[in-house]
Amino acid sequence: VQLVESGGGLVQPGGSLRLSCAASGFTFSNSGMSWYRQAPGKEREWVATISSPGGTTNYRDSVKGRFTISRDNAKNTVYLQMNSLEPEDTAVYYCVAPRFNSWGQGTQVTVSS
How do residues 76-102 score in pLDDT, each as one tens digit? Predict the structure, then answer.
């Protein structure tokens, strides 16, 4: 199982970023996928999950209405669209395949003016 995140960076408060996670080594279309994050000095926390099949999504309360998780099974890729970013969203974001307890290397998101 391999998960490779991309799309992180520095953005001003109120801005947007889209994270991508390219998956390989397993049947992606049959697997739920999640995003987690870890802010400096804090514990890692769950952000969002998308199921498969069906594409049911769930979010932590603090990102509801701002973040959208989606997937493209033809590309074996899961996305996290992040809008109205806040400084509190600053963290390393990880793509996770929970079924295999597999984590990507993470991508840094920094929200700062």
Answer: 999 999 999 999 999 999 999 999 999
| Region class of 25: left (phi > 0), else alpha (psi between -120 and 50), else beta | left
Q: Is 90 exceeded by the pLDDT of residue 54?
A: no
Q: Residue 100 and residue 66: Cα distance in Å, rounded?
A: 28
What amino acid occupies position 65? G
